[in-house]
Amino acid sequence: MAPNSQPSAESSQEVIERHEQAAQELIQDRELQLYIEGEWVDSTGSELLDIYDPTTGRKLATAQAGNDADIERAVTAAWRGFETWDDKSVAQRQVILSEIAKRIEARQEEFARLDALDNGKPLVEARDDIDLVVDHFRYFAGAARTLEGTTIPAENDQHIETVREPYGVVGQIIPWNFPLLMAAWKLAPALAAGNAVVLKPAEETPLSLVEFIHEIDDLIPDGLLNIVTGYGPEAGTSLVEHPRVRKIAFTGSTEVGRGVMKGAANTLKDISLELGGKSPLIIFPDAALDRAVEVAIDAMFYNAGECCCAGTRLFVHESLCDEFTQKFADAADDIVLGDPLLEKTEMGPKISPRQVQRTERYIRLAEEVGGRIVTGGKQLEDGRLAGGYFVVPTVVEGAPHRTRVAQEEIFGPVELVFEWSDYGNLIDRVNDVSFGLAAGIVSENISTTRRAARDIEAGNIWVNQYNEFPAGQPFGGYKQSGIGREIGKETIKAYTQTKTLNFKVD
Ligand SMILES: NC(=O)C1=CN([C@@H]2O[C@H](COP(=O)(O)OP(=O)(O)OC[C@H]3O[C@@H](n4cnc5c(N)ncnc54)[C@H](O)[C@@H]3O)[C@@H](O)[C@H]2O)C=CC1
Ligand code: BAL
Fold first, then answer.
1. Is the domain of 287 the same as that of 270?
2. Of the residues 8, 37, 432, 504, which has the maximum number of CB atoms within 10 A of its CB?
3. The one catalytic residue among 274, 306, 415, 486
4. 490 is a catalytic site residue
């Protein structure tokens, strides 16, 4: 199993030095503060949280653990920031959001390196994240101009119209798997719609967001954007339950999402939830084998499997199952696992020892129910990375579908392969999970793909590809994968409320 289970292990000196040098170049201050009303300030409490480099297991920085009083300050500041933002014209807001995109684009490589260091994702993937951050700010800069009201047909002595107004102050809570990208998914539409924000990043990965603020703080009014680092059950709960926070947007586990929904109910605020998944990828008999393998590798192993939409259940038609599974396992073996700061690396470590242990637990569960490990499920052999949180790409076949390993989110690089022959039975199994976030289909036949896309219960379906997130394409889940959609045009609307005006016409 992964070396993470040996706490005394150390990465090699070469890796440690590379990471220390990157940390010195990229992190302005290794004792992070909260960002409230345009200033870097200390928490009113004294609790700290340590941020670790998942490649070496060594400490990178220390953040402050925000508490109720810090959230209170941030919310008050945000209402002041909202007033200034609300005074700006939509065209002025558009210019500022476009300028944010430009600033981040100019420093793409630094932000990518920072996320590679803090999250452990390989540089090649981190660069994709930052490209998408830029794309999102550009898209929502434009979308700001599209918010329109309506005129409602009425009696002759009445004129009814609706306008869309921002909520005022919204709270946002994000996870660690795409640190700056998840911040952009949340911030860009909220600001474009005219809101001010209090955002709590994940405990594990605040570094790129802090650098983002350093980069853009001269562009935005004080209080418009406030960052409170801290633990979920404290700072997160406080934000969710705050009576003057009018909406909560949350991305993370389904379990915590359920609690967020209950917490938001106390003050009846609007919510959007982007939660877990157990997404299927279906390989039809007419699929081109090489392309199918490529799509399946991307679907499962992108970001070390730490994607809510990862294609973790691979349904392969019986006519090609043996050949496909072997090719897929060989391709999984060929993934270059290693130091995310090296160009050649295709998969880095997982985020934390907790996530390694969770993945290992599911591999054991798969074996216990009769699953056969086709590849992986063993120790990383590169001793230079001994201190890191690595899990080797793993492929399992033969685990029954109605078992925990086939039903629950693993969030690690573990693929379960299922053989199928009858289409009706396939769709029954595909939909036989509580989640409904995403799915993939590989076939050369358009009727086949359209029919399957219609039959699958999921919010996002990729055909002959996977993991594409261009701004403008709505993303969100069916069933227990969430509520609401992000990154599409409707998202900006979801950060507004409707006001109806009824005029008496004499
Ligand atoms: N949908 C997605 O993109 C993600 C899903 N996950 C899933 O969640 C599992 C656990 O990972 P975690 O990091 O523990 O996820 P989590 O759901 O605990 O954390 C996500 C965010 O929610 C915050 N949070 C935690 N408890 C909270 C509470 N009571 N009130 C308000 N905010 C709270 C955290 O501080 C973090 O910012 C993973 O194994 C994976 O299955 C994790 C990260 C992202
Ligand atoms: N949570 C957004 C993207 C993903 O995890 O796949």
1. no
2. 37
3. 274
4. no
